Amino acid sequence: TVKIEKVFKKNAGEADSTFQKRAMEFFQADYKANLDKQKAAEPAKIKAFIADNKLDAKTTASGLSYVIEKPGSAERATAGDTVLVDYTGRVTKKGKDGKYKIFDTSDEKLDKSEGNVRPGKPYGPQKMAIGQTVPGFDEALQMIGKGGKIKVIIPSKLGYGEQGAPQVGIMPNSPIAFDLEIKDIIKGKPAATTAP
């Protein structure tokens, strides 16, 4: 089934180059309007996810919503460190089954119970370098210590932004949610300093 949403007509006697330029401008403006509409809807999506899951979430200055379930040790990861983390990432829009779809997890049993088949995927705690993931994930990992657990709702500006990651179900300008648990913090080596 094909659904035609917009028709852009060529004017009588209009040169192809003029028509193509006019069409390109129209569709670029239409695309921008759709992106602006998606961005404007994002705060309501985050609010609805928090309410639906009955979370007593706090929000950082950057816009990351979170609930620290267990703070963990006093030591925190910083830029250049690597954390060993168990995680489950979900989209924040319910599917037809009324559930929030898992798009990635380190928990094999949970992944398979959701009907996901990921041949070759390594399960178990994963190493992630601070500064090498999406900004919201980095921020969340620095809020808890070893043994800590946190739930986060990452707005798209701190996640996958306008491009999203449609191959795993993350649409453009869509917030994502993670359950994170830090198993270990591997401190980075300090940068060598040179004398002046």
Mass-distribution shape: elongated
Q: What is the ordering of alpha helices and beta strands? A: HEEEEHEHEE
Q: What share of residues are in beta strands? A: 15-25%
Cα-based radius of gyration, to the nearest Å: 22 Å
Helix content class: 25-40%
How many runs of DSSP E, i.e. beta strands? 7
How confident is the prediction overall: mean pLDDT? 91
End-to-end distance, in Å? 70 Å
User: How is the main sheet built?
Assistant: 7 strands, antiparallel
Number of helices: 3
Q: Which class best fits the helix and strand makeup?
A: alpha+beta
Spans of at least 5 consecutive residues with low confidence: none
How would you describe what is shown here?
The structure is a single chain. This protein is of the alpha+beta class and 196 residues long. Helix content is 26%, strand content 24%. The chain is elongated. The mean pLDDT is 91.
Concise overview:
The protein is of the alpha+beta class and about 200 residues long. About 25% of the residues lie in helices and about 25% in strands.
Blueprint of the fold:
Elements: H1 16-52, E1 58-59, E2 65-70, E3 82-94, E4 100-105, H2 108-113, E5 126-129, H3 135-141, E6 149-154, E7 176-186
Antiparallel strand pairs: 1-2, 2-6, 3-4, 3-5, 3-7, 6-7
What are its keywords?
single chain; 196 residues; alpha+beta; seven-stranded antiparallel beta sheet; 26% helix
